[in-house]
Amino acid sequence: MEPFLVPLHFSKSGFFPAVFHKVFGVNHIIHGDLAGAKTAEFEARDPFCFLHRGFTLSQTFAALADPTRRAILARLSEGEANVSDLAKPFMDEMSLPAITKHLKVLEKAGLITRTKEAQWRPCKLNGEPLKTASDWMEQYRVFWEESFDRLDEYLKTVTAKKKPKGKKHGRKK
Amino acid sequence: MAAKNKSNELKITRIYDAPVKIVWEAWTDPEQVAKWWGPRGFTLTTHSKDLRVGGTWRYTMHGPDGTDWPNVTVYHEVEKYSRLVYDHGGNEDQPPLFRVTVNFTEYQGNKTRMDMTMTLPTPEAAEQTRKFIKQAGGDSTWDRLAEYLAQETAGKDQFVINRSFDTSVETMYEMWTHPEHLAQWLPPTGFTMNILREEMRPGGTSFYSMSGGNITMYGRIKYLEMERPRRLVYTQQFCDEKENISRHPMLPVWPATMVTTVVFSEEDPCHRHMGTRQQVDSGRSGRL
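ok -> C-alpha cells follow
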C-alpha cells in the first residue's frame, strides 16, 4: 500500500483537537487494517508518515471550515444536545432543516455521533471534549498559525504596493 | 524558519529566558525532556539514555491517537553546557534522517541562545523535512521548551509561538499597530474584524468586534507597552457589545484575560527574516 498525498492544511483547520483525535483515530483504524510489517516499517523510516497516510482529512476540514458548524461543536463540547437545543442560537437566521444539514456534515466527517434511538436523537462530540489547558493551547496555536499565514499573504500585497516589482518572487509553501 | 536558498540545512535560532545550565539540563535530563519534547499533543518515554560520544538515546514518542514512534539518537559530540551533535532517526536498518548540531550560548547575561542546524543529505530532503515539520507542528517543540522553562523557572502558564516573515521589523510593527492592517490578518478564519474604538497607544484600550457567520464577538485590547519597532505588550479580553467582560462565546475554555508579548527581531541579516514571538499568560482564570 502506497502512502497517499493529502492536501493537508493543519494550520487552516480551526478546531484542531477534535480534528486531531478524529484524524488520528481514523489513521489508527487504517493502520490496523493494513496490519502488516510494511506500515510499521514505513513508520519507522518516516516519523511523519501519518501526514500523508490519511484519506478523509479534506472532508473533516471542510466540515470545520464553516463557523456555524464550529459553533455547534463548541456547544457540544459542553455536553450532549439535541437538534432543537443546537438550533436555538441560530433561530433568527436559520431553519431547523438547515441546522440538521450542518449536523449531517459533521456526522459524516465523524466529528459528532447521533444516537439512533428516539426522535430526539441527541448529538455528542466524537472524541475528547475541549476542556483541558492543552486543548486550549492547541486551539490557540491554530488560531495564530492561521493568522500568521494570512499575514504572510497580506505582506506580499503590501510590499507589492510599496515598491512595484516586475515579477513576483516565487514563494515557499 | 530556515532560509529559502537551496541548502541542505535547516536552521533554528531561539532565545530562552533561562541560564544555559537550566536549558542544557532541560535538554539532557530524560525526566525533563519528557515534559516538552515533540510537537504539541505528543508525549515521550525514554528507554535508555547514554549522553556521551557514541552513546545513544532510545525513546518512543506517543502520538495523540496512541500511535508510537520509536526514535534513536546517536551522539557524536557532547560538550556540557555548550554543544551537542547527534544523528536523529536512524536505527539498525536505516541511515539517520538528519544530523543535528546545537550550540548553547549565554545571551544578555541570564538568557540562552540556542542555535540549531539540521543537516540533510540533499537540499530536496531538507525541503521535504521542512514541510513535514511544518505540517506536524514540529517547530512547536521549541515553543514548548520556552513554555516549560517559564513554568519551571517562574511558575508561569505561557503559550509561545514563533514565526518568521520575509519583511523588515518596521513593517511588522506597522502590521500590528495599524488597525487597517491588523483587520486584514488577525481575525480567526471566516471572521471580519471591525475596530470600534481605536486607542493604539500605551495605556489606551481599543474595542473591536469580530463577525463571522451568525456570531459576533467583542473584545478589548489594552496596550501596556509599545516600543517601536521591537516590542508590544497588550492584554486581551472578550466582552459583550457594552464592553462588559465575558468568556469566549465559542470556546468557553479560553482564558478570560491574556497578556500577550510580541517581540520582533531580525532573524538573519542576509535574508531579512523576522521572527515574532508571542508569550501569553493565561491568567489562570476559568477552567484552566
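The first helix of chain B runs from residue 20 to 28.
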